[in-house]
Model the fold of this input.
Amino acid sequence: MEKKTSRPNLKTKQFSTLHIEIFEQLLVSGKTNWDLNRQFGYTKKSHSVVDHSRKVMYKLLILENLKREENLDKVIYPRLYKFWWKRLLDKNKPALLGKAVVALYYEERSALTRKNC
Done:
């Protein structure tokens, strides 16, 4: 039996535009992490949405010259501080997009090709 996966085949390993998109959705959509995981193609219990969002938050703190230790609550509970994070994101989005690479995905292989491998 073939293992079924719903995870996107992300080719890009560095900081990408997908990280920014996921963080922005976390702030504005009002969806749970489980719903965001499903929306972006990750499994229900995946930690990717949290990991990708934290990567963006840490970059925003650096751009604002803020210390990680002093803003730990804001990183752990981003939805409680969503207006604060949204303001930082809007202010620094051009700089973040300048550092981010475009997210690339592996092409989906057909079921026939998978059987032949």
